[in-house]
């Protein structure tokens, strides 16, 4: 028995070891599921969508510019003399009315010039009276003798013509003297404000000497840069006056933390496109720049030199879908959810990209466009919609970020 056991026991041990090794090699531990392109399609994403509707919209086009006066002039002396008086309002920032006297120049010489001119006129008038009497007398004498073809010098006609010319010259000199006296008072040509002054009492000025710079308060302007594409959307022919059909624009200025709005009109465009930035400039005018439309007291001024933001409306665009910008992919596509709750990619045509919204063509009414931010998703995955937005317009906004999708 013992020899048999010595033979069988090693065989049994080998069989058991082989069975154990077979069991070990056939066992594989259960690994944790790692998301991949295959398993990801089995996930269910929750998203928000926009139910598409085709619209006719006017796209808001925004710009900005600096307020400048339409009329700015250098006020200059028109005659020579010493400045004797300056209006207290003729100082930087001062306001004045049309025909206000801003500067007075010593007028004594000019008053004496009038007296002298009047005396010359009196003398010229006397000589003219005498020459006229002699001319009339000679005519009577020669006509009484039956002579008709009498030379002018015999009638003293040249002497009369000279006296008449001297009289007219004397009258003109008197008018010039009066005009010079009038110009000793430098008056305002319009209602306006003073930018700066360059003279003072006691200074001797000559014709053309600058006295200061002023601007008119009736109308201010702002130059608004737009791209050539935006200009085309506004239908603005280059260099054309728009007085017949002005384009309205809303201007906003932030003052003391509050926004104030003025209604303006685009009256013309720049004659050329800027060489530096290839932009076209719209020139808008505000006819009531010193009264905003939405302040309680109505007295807020549109200050010269400040920057304002501007908003214009484009010409009507048809068959447009308005989407928040985050719904548009980098390669001109959007994600949509089909009737089987499956995520699909659609190429679209961009009509215009605004700050918050995208205006596109190429989607059918009723298409459900995903407005949630999608990252790392593939076409064909299953989608569950948690919220459906109604169509937005050019002035409404879904531009605030929608909730990111989650997986269930």
Describe the protein in words:
This protein is an alpha+beta fold and 408 residues long. It has 4 domains: 44-57 and 317-407, conserved putative lor/sdh protein from methanococcus maripaludis s2 fold; 62-67 and 219-313, Beta Barrel (Elongation Factor Tu (Ef-tu), domain 3), CATH 2.40.30; 71-106 and 184-216, RNA polymerase II/Efflux pump adaptor protein, barrel-sandwich hybrid domain (OB fold (Dihydrolipoamide Acetyltransferase, E2P), Beta Barrel), CATH 2.40.50; 108-182, Helix Hairpins (Orthogonal Bundle), CATH 1.10.287. The chain is 24% helix and 34% strand. The chain has helices at 2-26, 37-40, 108-144, 157-182, 228-234, and strands spanning 44-51, 55-57, 60-69, 72-76, 81-86, 95-96, 101-105, 185-187, 192-197, 204-205, 210-216, 220-226, 247-255, 258-269, 280-286, 307-313, 317-324, 333-337, 343-347, 349-353, 357-361, 368-370, 382-389, 406-407. Strands 1, 18, 19, 22, 23 and 24 form a 6-stranded mixed beta sheet that branches.
Work out the helicity level: 10-25%
- SSE string, helix = H, strand = E? HHEEEEEEEHHEEEEEHEEEEEEEEEEEE
Question: What is the makeup of the main sheet?
Answer: 6 strands, mixed
The strand count comes to: 24
CATH topology of the largest domain: conserved putative lor/sdh protein from methanococcus maripaludis s2 fold
Mean of residue pLDDT values: 82
Q: Strand pairing plus helix content: what structural class?
A: alpha+beta
Proportion in β-strands: 25-35%
Rg over C-alpha atoms, rounded to the nearest angstrom: 46 Å
End-to-end separation: 69 Å
Report the total helices: 5
């Amino acid at each position: 028995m013992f020899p048999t056991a010595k033979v069988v026991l090693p065989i049994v041990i080998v069989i058991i070891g082989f069975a154990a090794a077979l069991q070990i090699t056939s066992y594989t531990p259960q690994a944790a599921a790692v998301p991949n392109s295959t398993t990801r399609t089995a996930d269910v994403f929750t998203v928000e969508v926009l139910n598409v509707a085709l619209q006719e919209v006017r796209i808001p086009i925004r710009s900005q510019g600096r307020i400048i006066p339409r009329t700015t002039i250098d006020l200059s002396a028109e005659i020579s003399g010493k400045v004797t008086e300056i209006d207290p309002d003729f100082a930087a920032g001062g306001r004045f009315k049309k025909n206000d006297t801003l500067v007075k120049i010593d007028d004594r010489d000019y008053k004496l010039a009038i007296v002298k001119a009047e005396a010359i006129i009196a003398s010229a008038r006397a000589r003219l009276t005498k020459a006229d009497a002699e001319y009339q007398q000679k005519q009577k004498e020669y006509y009484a003798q039956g002579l008709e073809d009498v030379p002018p010098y015999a009638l003293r006609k040249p002497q009369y013509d000279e006296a008449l010319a001297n009289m007219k010259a004397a009258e003109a000199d008197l008018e010039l003297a009066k005009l010079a006296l009038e110009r000793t008072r430098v008056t305002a040509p319009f209602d306006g404000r003073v930018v700066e002054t360059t003279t003072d009492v006691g200074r001797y000025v000559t014709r053309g000497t600058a006295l200061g710079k002023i601007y008119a308060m009736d109308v201010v302007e702002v130059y608004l840069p737009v791209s050539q594409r935006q200009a085309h959307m506004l239908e603005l022919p280059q260099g054309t006056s728009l007085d017949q059909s002005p384009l309205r624009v809303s201007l906003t200025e932030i003052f003391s933390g509050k926004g104030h709005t003025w209604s303006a009109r685009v009256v013309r465009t720049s004659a050329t496109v800027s060489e530096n930035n290839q932009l076209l400039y719209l020139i808008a005018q505000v006819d009531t720049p010193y009264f905003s439309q939405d302040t309680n007291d109505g007295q807020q001024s549109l200050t010269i030199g400040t920057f304002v933001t501007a908003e214009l409306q484009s010409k009507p665009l048809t068959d447009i879908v308005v989407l928040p910008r985050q719904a548009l992919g980098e390669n001109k596509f959007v994600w949509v959810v089909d009737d089987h709750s499956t995520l699909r990619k659609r190429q679209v045509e961009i009509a215009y990209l605004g700050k918050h919204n995208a205006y596109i063509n190429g989607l059918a009414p009723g298409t459900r466009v995903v407005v949630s931010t999608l990252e790392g998703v593939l076409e064909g995955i299953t989608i569950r919609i948690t919220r459906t937005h109604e169509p937005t317009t050019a002035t409404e906004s879904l531009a605030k970020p929608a909730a990111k999708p989650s997986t269930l």
